[in-house]
Write a sequence for this structure.
């Protein structure tokens, strides 16, 4: 029996082709995808498509898109063996992180992909990315279970856990990296699956639950030399902010100046959820290692461990949407929910 996939086009470079009349880039009709990417016909896969209208530029992505994607997958979950989401690269890691938390009980692949060059260009990376994403989304083991029942990003021959990925290049085909978690698969002559790195469900019985209520009252403060008390207080203690992600130095360090810690303590007394993630591309937050990190811990800041900023943001959106209880959100944030932090 053929596997069945739904390709969802939200927008982005991958779906563009050059108009032969005026040479402008325009989205192509994904119902005619086999004519544009005939390689897909070689797979024993039934492919349907869904195109968002209007299409959404990656830089304009909002949580409303994530809700629409999650609801679409929920509504069509029983009809398909996997889903491929075509998305612009600029915010792909945010969207993949969000879907990983919004889809609870996932037993099927949800694979994001895109391209740096339009699919209609001669040197496009879009065709290879799409073909690999389709093959991975359709892949099943001997028991008929998905090889990768996760939200993932397929790009430049690598399959990355969605909530571990971050965009690292605006120009190279190798646009994404997952510095703190190994690739889930690599596409060479064959697809090589790294099964120990893949997260499998405790049961294969379908019980997908979708979290669509998101609380987006989160700010991000990147710690840097020269910060002023006024700016820090505005971000940490702002009345419209429920949580703040502090992007700190190294293993979770920030200034040790009394005024900074006083503001952090003030925000904690206000009940704010304060999360510490590192600015470094890899590594983990350890607030017990240095005095400055420990001072943040004593002031009420919780560790984000080795979570990316994208994953921390999406996780907070979902947890805050689930409960108004900030202590519960802080406690739950520290737990590994979707493989986003190392145990």
């Amino acid at each position: 029996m053929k596997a069945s996939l739904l390709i969802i086009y939200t927008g982005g470079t991958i779906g563009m082709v050059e108009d032969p009349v005026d040479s402008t880039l325009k989205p192509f009709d994904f119902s005619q995808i086999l004519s544009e990417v005939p390689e897909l016909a070689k797979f024993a896969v039934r492919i349907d498509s869904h195109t968002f209208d209007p299409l959404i530029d990656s830089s304009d992505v909002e949580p409303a898109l994530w809700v629409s994607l999650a609801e679409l997958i929920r509504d069509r979950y029983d009809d398909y063996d996997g889903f491929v989401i075509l998305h612009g690269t600029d915010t792909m890691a945010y969207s993949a992180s969000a879907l990983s938390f919004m889809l609870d009980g996932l037993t099927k692949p949800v694979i994001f992909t895109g391209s740096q060059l339009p699919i209609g260009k001669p040197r496009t990376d879009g065709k290879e990315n799409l073909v690999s994403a389709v093959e991975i989304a359709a892949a099943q083991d001997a028991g008929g279970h998905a090889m990768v029942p996760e939200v993932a990003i397929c790009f430049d021959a690598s399959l990355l856990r969605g909530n571990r990925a971050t965009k690292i290049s605006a120009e190279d085909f190798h646009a994404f990296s997952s510095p703190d978690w190994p690739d889930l698969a690599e596409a060479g002559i064959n697809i090589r699956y790294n099964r120990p790195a893949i997260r499998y469900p405790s049961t294969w019985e379908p019980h997908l639950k979708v979290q669509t209520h998101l609380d987006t009252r989160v700010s991000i403060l990147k710690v840097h030399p020269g910060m002023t008390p006024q700016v820090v207080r505005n971000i940490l203690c702002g009345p419209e902010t429920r949580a703040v992600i502090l992007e700190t130095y190294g293993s979770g360090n920030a200034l040790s100046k009394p005024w900074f810690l006083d503001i952090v303590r003030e925000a904690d007394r206000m009940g704010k959820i304060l999360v510490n993630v590192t600015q470094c591309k890899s590594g983990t937050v350890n607030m017990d290692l240095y005095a400055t990190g420990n001072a943040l811990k004593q002031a009420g800041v919780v560790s984000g461990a080795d979570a990316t900023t994208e994953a921390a943001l999406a996780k907070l959106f979902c947890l805050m949407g689930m409960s108004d209880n900030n202590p519960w959100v802080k406690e739950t944030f520290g737990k590994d929910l979707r493989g986003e932090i190392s145990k």
About this structure: The longest strand covers residues 3-9. The two ends are 39 Å apart (CA to CA). DSSP finds nine helices and 18 strands in the chain. Residues 63-76 form the longest helix (14 residues).
